[in-house]
Amino acid sequence: MGRSAIFNFISIIFLVLAVIWIVFVVSRLLGPSVTDPRVAGFVLPPTVELPTLTPTQTPLPTNTPTDTLTPTITLTPSETPTITPTLAPSSTITDTPTVTLPPSATPTPLATFTALPSASPTGPSPTAPPTDSPYPFRLREDNIILTQNFANSAGCAWQGFGGQVFGLDNDPLTGLQVHIYGEAVDFYVQSGSNTLYGPAGWEQPVDNVINTRTYYVQLLSAQGTVISDPIQVTFPGDCAQNLALVNFIQTRPL
C-alpha cells in the first residue's frame, strides 16, 4: 500500500466515527424527556465529601537577603611638605670710620666769692608749748595698740576694743565708763568689768567680722561726765589687727 492508501483508510475511519456521533446525538434528542417517570424515579446517590487534609508543616520564613556593602578604598592623606624659604644672604655693613676731633683746651675755673651768712637779728623762733587737754585723762603714752584678738575664742570672727584705766600713780581705776561709738554703734562699758586685760580692764566687741570702719572711744566718770578727749580708731581690716587696745591714764586730780 502506498501513502495515499493510508490517508484514504484514515479518512474512512473518521467518516464512520462522524456518522456514529450524529446518530448518537439524534437519538438523544429524540429520546424521552426529563419528566419521564422512568427517568424521574431514578435517584442519584448522595455526594460523599472527602475530608480535606490540613497541612501540618508550617512553612519556614524566607530569609530576606540583606544588602552587601561594597568596601570603598579610603585614601590616607599624606603630609604636605612645608617649604622653608631660604633667606638671601644680606650684605655686610661696613663701618664708616669716624673722624676723631682733637681734645679742646679745658677752661680754668675762676675763683668765686661766697657770701658769709649774716647773723639773724631776732634769733630762732620759739616753739609754742603743747596745749594742755581740758580733761583730766588722756591716752596712755599717746599710743593705740592694734593686735590680734587674744581674750576670747572668736578669733577672726570678732572685732572690738579693750584696755585699762590708770590713776595718777598708775594704780587701776575701776567703775569709770568707757564710751565706744561710731557708725551704727553706741556702747558703754565699765572699767574693771574684764580682768583679762588687767585689774581695771574692759572689753567691748563692735562686730562679728573684721572691717575698716572708724570708731571713737571716750572716757566718762561714773556719773557720765566726759573726762577725756575722744580717741579716733580706724581698723585696717586685718585679722591680725582686729583688737584695738586703748588705755587711759589720769594726768591731774578730778
Please explain how this structure is put together.
The chain has helices at residues 3-30, 37-40; strands spanning 137-139, 145-147, 159-163, 165-166, 177-182, 185-190, 202-207, 214-220, 231-234, 243-245, 248-250. The protein contains two helices and eleven strands. It has 254 residues and is of the alpha+beta class. Among the domains are: 1-31; 137-250, Immunoglobulin-like (Sandwich), CATH 2.60.40.1110.
Write a brief structural summary.
The protein is α+β, with helices and mostly antiparallel strands and 254 residues long.
Task: Chart the SSEs and their pairings.
Layout: H1 3-30, H2 37-40, E1 137-139, E2 145-147, E3 159-163, E4 165-166, E5 177-182, E6 185-190, E7 202-207, E8 214-220, E9 231-234, E10 243-245, E11 248-250
Parallel strand pairs: 3-10, 4-11
Antiparallel strand pairs: 1-11, 2-10, 3-7, 5-6, 5-8, 8-9
